[in-house]
Amino acid sequence: MALARITLALFAAGVRGQLQYRMNFVIWAAVGIVFQLTGFFFLWALLARFRSIAGWSLEEIAFLYGLRLLGHALTVFFLGGTQLVDWLVREGAFDRYLVRPVPLLLMVVTWFRPSAVGDLLGGIVLFAAASRVVPLDLSLPAVAYLGLAVLGATLIEGGLRLAIAAMAFRFLQTHGILWFVDTIFNNFGNLPLRIFGSAVELLLTFVLPVAFVAYLPASVLLGRTSELTIQPAIAYAAPLVGVIVFGLAYLLWHHELPRYQSSGH
Amino acid sequence: MTLAGFPAMWQFARMEAQTFLTYRVNLGLQLLGILLQVYLLKVVWTAVYEGRTEVDGIALGTLIAYLTLANLQVWAIYPQTAEVLPPRIQSGAIALDLARPIGLLVQLIWRSVGATLGLVALVVVALPLAAVLGSLRPPASPEAASLYVISLLLGYGITLAIGILLGLVAFWTLETHGITILYHFVNQFFAGALVPLWFFPDWLRTVAELLPFQTQAFLPLSIYFGRLVGTDALRAIGVQVVWLVILWLAAGLVWRAAIHRVVIQGG
What we know:
The structure holds two protein chains of two kinds. By secondary structure, chain A is an all-alpha fold. Chain A has 13 helices and no strands. Chain A has helices spanning 2-19, 22-49, 58-79, 85-91, 94-98, 104-109, 115-133, 140-171, 175-188, 197-207, 215-221, 232-236, 238-256. By secondary structure, chain B is mainly α. Chain B has helices spanning 5-22, 24-49, 60-76, 81-91, 94-99, 104-133, 142-168, 170-173, 177-190, 202-210, 218-224, 230-259, and strands spanning 54-55, 58-59. In chain B, strands 1-2 form a two-stranded antiparallel ribbon. In chain B, α2 (24-49) runs antiparallel to α3 (60-76), α2 crosses α6 and α3 (60-76) runs antiparallel to α6 (104-133). The interface between A and B is large, with 36 and 41 residues.
């Protein structure tokens, strides 16, 4: 209970902190939306001229995109603070976190980022709109699977961000690798991966688990599992992959944490 | 610019290029991200071409070479001034910059040039990889090549003005990461780095042609690939000149307003 109160207080403090730069807050929220819009705009502009991508219509692509976006938005919303870790480590500001009587990770992740508002809005709108136009199975198991898939997507992306944050104790500067992973997720995450051929599809399934974020769950929900390179059963297990990735990231975080060297103090 | 001032400015450019390249691992990863996007665009566009060699008179090979160059170009000429100014305003280091015997705008321009030269060097190193992940083609003709260089330089002049405008926003908002990222995405789309303006729906193309972003990739590369020749190419360059003048006038005006708002933090 006390922990919930602390979480809330930290989160509120984060929001208030960001509101100090009001104009910037509004701009960042807009960034979230525009960022998502340019990605979708690209596919929309493409499909306005060309009918489909590997048999996926604009509506189906929109559903896939919306699913991926929702997971991403929740990641940024609840785990966005992980991206500040390398900066905190370099500045030595991480010291302050270590001496506080609150779970360390909680303080790290509750650093609120205004772009999360835009991400979340964009995600919800696109997902809601897409869900209406594609023929969607609304039975209880299907809806439950959808919910778990979104949660799994959040854990996969959040887990990778946590793992990258953990690397900051060793490498100090992790902005580049975060940017790289983000780029892959943002670019590949919302496309029918079969267009890349089976080698890349497998790479993005088993090496960097992008496929589990949206492509595989969307294939399940749109009844497209027959075109997958992998066994459909693996696609159904997508939410579980989230738990595994996040669990491993959490272990890595604890493994790397003792490496922290306070700098400049 | 006096001749005596030139070495000092060149120092700014060199300094910035060096500072910039200190983070070359990061930049290398960024560039890898760009190349990845190029590869991705190649795959997506190949998928929508569905085996056709040509759509609307645009061969798939030309299109992919266009997208490769467009993405590298947009990355290399990114308005660095937008990144240089805000931290200096936040930290108060701007006071030092303003006290220097060379005007702040001139310092900014040279810092930008330095950073861009660093990026261009990286792009040149990465060209073989770009050829593999995307595709490279020579200019359509010697005329196309020379007009492309002019067009690219004009595009860079426009970038500098935009970068100054974006950086100056910090005098009002202090923090500007949001607006620069916003710029990045809007520019990328309307510059034609994802979909060339040829394939835009008509209304969107009209919008894109009213914005300055097409000067960053679409116009120079349309010239490069011989899609704009003769008077059409010259007209495109004319459009760039008009934007150059408008944006530099705007940058000058905003600069004058900004200088009255200087708040030195902690000083």
